[in-house]
């Protein structure tokens, strides 16, 4: 098993980190502390936002999908700024939230190729992905899409995986299997306040538009508290 200190040193040695966020806000919830710590020590962090986030409030005429997607992108930009990554590179693929293209389709292949090009250019030495079996389909599909992009680019960078919804909604088969991963942790005590502030930038997901868009997604307090503690947990695939 890798120790806590060894893991922190491994993360600390990475100089070019690719962070994959299925939706705007996953970058903060899943690895906001890692982003803040990496930037503070001088590493480059490229954040890849896979979907447009436009499906969180589907029933509101006041917040049609194009408007919501545009605002969520702005929220992501502000969250990165608050994490200290305002000048760091980012890519918005803008795939449809909750309706990602089917594996092997023309749209999927185009997205994979864009990701492969990004990886070749950025040349990451660490990739941070959503957990492969996180209950949300966009998280699973983002993991598959980026892994295929890594293969197409011939990139063998080590990966970490973060889970957002596993603890809340995961079925037994969604959890790691024996020998599949190591559970590792990163202390983010000194970055925690930045992470909490960055999460507040995602106000559309925290109830700020509930009056105009009732019945939409609102990130519950329990999940906020669970994902903004002083430690971030990751799955490190076993080799």
Q: Could you spell the SSE succession in H and E letters?
A: HEHEHEHEHEHEHHE
Total count of strands: 7
User: Any idea how many domains?
Assistant: 1
Structural class: alpha/beta
CATH architecture: 3-Layer(aba) Sandwich
Question: Could you tell me the mean pLDDT?
Answer: 95
CATH C-level: Alpha Beta
**Proportion of strand residues:** 15-25%
Strand order of the largest sheet: 3-2-1-4-5
* Fourth-level CATH superfamily: LmbE-like
Describe the structure.
The chain has 239 residues and is α/β, with parallel strands linked by helices. It has a single domain, classed as 3-Layer(aba) Sandwich (Rossmann fold). It has eight helices and seven strands; from the N terminus they run H-E-H-E-H-E-H-E-H-E-H-E-H-H-E. The protein has helices at residues 4-13, 26-40, 65-82, 106-122, 137-153, 166-169, 192-200, 221-227, and strands spanning 16-21, 44-51, 90-95, 126-130, 159-162, 181-187, 231-237. It has a five-stranded parallel beta sheet, sandwiched between helices. Strands 6-7 form a two-stranded antiparallel sheet. Strand 4, helix 5 (137-153) and strand 5 form a beta-alpha-beta unit. Helix 4 (106-122) crosses helix 5 (137-153). The longest helix has 18 residues, at 65-82. 42% of the residues are buried. The mean pLDDT is 95.
